[in-house]
């Protein structure tokens, strides 16, 4: 099932600020624990931003690692 961005952000806000357990939140919202965990990673508010910027930062980290790894093996 595809969820709207607002729904995802609200689920993250609830779990991070309400004091409710993640188990209760996923049960109440009808979503899986791994789904909520991914949304928390993607939408957790932080200094660098959230959502798409966090995703791009992770992709950049992976790209840098691949470049370094491949360079060591002479496959650039």
SSE blueprint and pairings:
Layout: H1 5-17, H2 22-29, H3 33-43, H4 52-72
Helix pairs in contact: 1-3
Describe this structure in words.
The chain is an all-alpha fold. It has helices spanning 5-17, 22-29, 33-43, 52-72. Helix 1 crosses helix 3. It is elongated and about 50 Å long. It starts with a helix and ends with a helix. The model has no long low-confidence stretch (mean pLDDT 78).
In short:
By secondary structure, the chain is mainly α. Helices cover 70% and strands 0% of the residues. The radius of gyration is 16 Å and the shape is elongated.
Strand fraction: under 5%
Low-confidence stretches: none
- Structural class from helices and strands? mainly alpha
Helix content: 55-70%
Shape: elongated
Distance between the termini: 39 Å
Average pLDDT taken over every residue? 78
> What would you report as the Rg, rounded to the nearest angstrom?
16 Å
The major pleated sheet works out as: none
Question: What is the number of helical segments per DSSP (H or I, 4+ residues)?
Answer: 4
DSSP strand tally: 0
What order do the helices and strands follow?
Answer: HHHH
Task: Please tag this protein with its features.
76 residues; 70% helix; mainly alpha; 4 helices; single chain
């Amino acid at each position: 099932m595809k969820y709207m961005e607002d729904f995802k952000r609200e689920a993250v806000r609830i779990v991070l600020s309400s004091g409710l357990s993640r188990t209760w939140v996923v049960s109440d919202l009808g979503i899986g624990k791994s789904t909520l965990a991914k949304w928390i990673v993607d939408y957790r508010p932080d200094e660098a931003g959230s959502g798409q910027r966090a995703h791009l930062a992770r992709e950049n980290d992976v790209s840098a690692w691949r470049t370094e790894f491949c360079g060591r093996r002479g496959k650039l």
